[in-house]
Amino acid sequence: MIIFSVLAVFGLAFLAPPLCRLTKEKSGWWLAILPLALTVYFLSLLPGLARGQIQSISYLWSQELGLTFAFRADGLSLAFALLISGIGALVAVYAGGYFGTKVPIGRFYLWLFFFMASMLGVVFADHLILLFIFWELTSLSSFMLIGFEHDREEARAAAIQALLVTGSGGLVMLAGFVLLGQVGQTWELSTLFLRGEGVRASPLYLAIVILILIGAFTKSAQFPFHFWLPNAMQAPTPVSTYLHAATMVKAGVYLLARLSPVLGGSPIWLWAVGGIGAVTMVLGGVLALSQTDMKRLLAYSTISALGSLVMAIGIGSETALKAMVLFLLAHGLYKGTLFLVTGSVDHECGTRDVRELGGLGRLMPYTALGSTLAALSMAGVPLFFGFLAKEYLYEASYKAGALWLILAVLGALLNVWIALRVGIAPFWLAGSKEAELPKKPHEAPWSMTVGPLILGGLSLGLGAYPQILSSVLVSPALSAMAGKAVEVKLKAWHGINDILLLSLLTLGLGVVAFAIRNDLQRIAEQWTVPWGLDTLYRRSIDGLFRLASFQTRLLQHGYLRYYLITIVVAVVGITAGGLIRWGGGALPHLSLDLRFYELGIAIIIVLAGGMAILSRSRLGAVAALGVAGYGVASIYLLFGAPDLAMTQFLIESLTVILFVLAFYHLPNFAQLTPRRERLRDVIIAIVTGCLMTIFVFVASGIQIHPSISQFFVENALPLAHGRNIVNVILVDFRGLDTLGEITVLAIAGLGVFALLKLRIDQRSARAGKTTQTGRKGGDQ
Amino acid sequence: MTSLILRTMVRLLLPLLLLFSVFLLLRGHNEPGGGFVGGLMAATGFALFSIAFGSSTARRILQIDPLVLIGVGLLLALSSGLMTLLLEQPFLTGVWYKLSLGALGKLELGTPLFFDIGVYLTVWGVTLTIIFALEEVG
């Protein structure tokens, strides 16, 4: 069933465009049915999971390569899968209202569901290579979705940046996977899981950790690769909600959580994963200080949240992992809501600038309600889901050391500030310039409020009654990471203790920070960081373009004669090099056992060649070339290759026809090249001719591999049912070569067609303008 | 070009050349011939025709756009290879059936024949595409 859930969403992706044409403005609701059904299905697996039943399935893909389509749904996979399908369904509904019918929405849904399927594949894959494939498919669909409004240059640049950063990170990760697979001697994650000891003892351990971390950190926007995520906010808001807050950026977190039983538990892991996570957590919050765009604010807070998750995995204690799972769910819920709300505000007010927005609570009551619930959860107000997650995060960092705790509080504090700024202020504080909003705000349509309301409601409900999650989801997810059955009891209220006081302190400080937001913003705007990978990225892209245009100018000059000279001289040079290295050796015995008619043909060919060179008319030269070709074909005939001869005769005839047709359009024959250039061409031609002669002569005397002609002769009839060996080789023994050749032929034909038609269209357009006759180029 | 001799001759030659091209294609497996030569032969016929009567007339006689021929040819060659996958044989394995035609003897049919027809159509289509395009320039 698991594999079918992934396949079904892929199917939905390809059906989405026609379905959208069919259902028009209601398409969001219809298309959400499948993700919704999958959510229900995943939920139905939870009770079984609590009893320890794990769904898994495996199909053989390639025996030789050790590849299987192995899927497995344990607690960790299902926690992610529920976010993917659940938020996916709401985003599908939301996007229907957000886009309306103005944009090619079928294409949007195609990539959205393509992404959803790939993401489900990532979390269900039980095979490293399979996981990698789905991983890269998510990068690909993210590229298509960020660049969805492809007529905007910023969107295209952001899409390329996200693809290059996450894609190249993925390739590095693949190298790590290969090493991991070799060290662990299996590709199956569930088997690898049992071999953690051996992997950690391996000399390649450090290399594996670094390579895989680069993959996970690029995907999950960890420092120093975080820069692509704010830029990715060029994507339409439903995409940002889904990919860049709730799901895709968590793929890195998933991978780390999944591999932590195998790779975790070492000091390197603690400091590399935990350390980078903590730095990212604080950095994301600090960078948000100077932002005023709601989406960018949220993007930085997402970076910060991803940092917290990564830090928790790095710390790796049971409490930390519990905090990770809870924070993962809580963040998915509240951040998803806030992004959707941002989209609605942008949609209804025409701006996302927090300085301009205010007083929307009365105008957009449902949106405001969802937003408020989510913001309170994000700020960590008691009884909300976010509070619970933060409690555990504090507890875990407290146990890990004072430094971790200080960083965790700092990160949380900055997130309180962002929550107030994005989730509360635009609705409940008076705006500075309410009258000047680009649009008169009013409540968003039903399809755009249902998502925030459900997710916001869950942020409160799951916070107040976390008991329903403990045994069915959190315990299995923890067991999957810890490698043993873990019993979890969750309570909404832990009584008054140090951690609670710390939480309240965080809230208080956050409110203070919010009160002085304008001063903070002014200070933050002073800090400019002149370095970082973002700059490096831009420099290398610029450099790449400069290199590309330099080599294009150098090589693609557009002169046919120089192309030919380059090709011929290169071939001659390489061949000459080979001949010199070969250095003589046994030349085959040259027998001059010529018949008179063979000699006659040879003389005709030479004479025709001379005539082709000396002829003063193009037609004469072509005819002479044709004669030379016919001569060669006759030689084939004499030496018993009728197939070859027949083809050659036809080719020669057709070539003459083609030449004549082409010459018809050329200006009169004239010699424009100076003597020196012609001398150069003569020398090149003579050297090439001599060298090819020597080459053919030498080649006929060398045999590196035993000849397989005998095999063809013997097997043409019994194996391939044909007596014409040449043809049997073409269509059967070497059928794949022929298929490649006719494909190349077809492409070449299309190329010629396109080039010629392009000229016709330009000419007829010009002719149409000047003469107004409107005749078609094709009729002449 | 409006040469009466050429026109009269081409009118007679075209059906012959086409027939001969099919003949070459079909005999190719056992005697000299094959899809490649056959395709060239068919293209030559139409090339002559279009020189004599112009490419628009040639296109009308052909009825099918040469670009379509290319596509169909490639598809045929590819699917002749894919058919064998259904029999759990590697891509492009030759699969043969023997048909008994009573008094006429027996006929061996195999996927390489479809492949060769694909080659024939592709070569025919490409050559004609280029010839027609060249004629229609300017």
Average pLDDT taken over every residue of chain A:
86
Q: How is the biggest beta sheet of chain B arranged?
A: 2 strands, antiparallel
Distance between the termini of chain A: 62 Å
| Intertermini distance of chain B | 16 Å
Proportion of helical residues of chain A: over 70%
* Multimeric state: heterodimer
Query: Care to count the β-strands of chain B?
Result: 2
Q: How is the main sheet of chain A built?
A: 2 strands, antiparallel
Would you list the SSEs of chain B in sequence order as H and E? HHHHEEH
Q: For the CA atoms, what is the radius of gyration of chain A?
A: 35 Å
Written overview of the protein:
- The complex is a heterodimer of chains A (780) and B (138).
- With 780 residues, chain A is mainly alpha-helical.
- Chain A has a domain at 266-538.
- In chain A, 75% of the residues lie in helices and 2% in strands.
- Chain A has a two-stranded antiparallel ribbon with strand order 1-2.
- With 138 residues, chain B is mostly helical.
- Chain B has one domain (4-136).
- Chain B has 5 helices and 2 strands; from the N terminus they run ααααββα.
- Chain B has helices spanning 4-27, 35-53, 55-62, 66-86, 111-136, and strands spanning 96-100, 106-110.
- In chain B, helix 2 (35-53) packs across helix 3.
- The model of chain B has no long low-confidence stretch (mean pLDDT 86).
- Classes of the chains: A mainly alpha (780), B mainly alpha (138).
- Chains A and B meet through helix 29, helix 32 and helix 33 of A and helix 2, helix 4 and helix 5 of B.
Chain-wise SSE layout:
The complex is a heterodimer of chains A (about 775) and B (about 140).
Chain A (H helix, E strand, L loop, with lengths): L1 H22 L3 H5 L1 H18 L4 E8 L4 E7 L1 H25 L5 H20 L3 H19 L6 H32 L4 H4 L3 H6 L3 H15 L8 H4 L5 H10 L4 H13 L3 H22 L5 H22 L2 H32 L10 H4 L1 H15 L5 H16 L1 H27 L17 H19 L2 H16 L15 H18 L1 H10 L6 H23 L4 H23 L13 H19 L3 H21 L3 H22 L11 H25 L9 H12 L4 H9 L1 H37 L9
Antiparallel strand pairs in A: 1-2
Helix pairs in contact in A: 1-5, 3-4, 3-22, 4-5, 4-12, 4-16, 4-21, 4-22, 5-6, 6-7, 7-10, 10-13, 12-15, 12-16, 13-15, 14-15, 14-20, 15-16, 15-20, 16-18, 16-19, 16-21, 16-22, 18-20, 18-21, 19-20, 19-21, 19-23, 20-23, 26-30, 27-28, 28-29, 31-32, 32-33
Chain B lengths: L3 H24 L7 H19 L1 H8 L3 H21 L9 E5 L5 E5 H26 L2
Helix pairs in contact in B: 1-2, 2-3, 2-5, 4-5
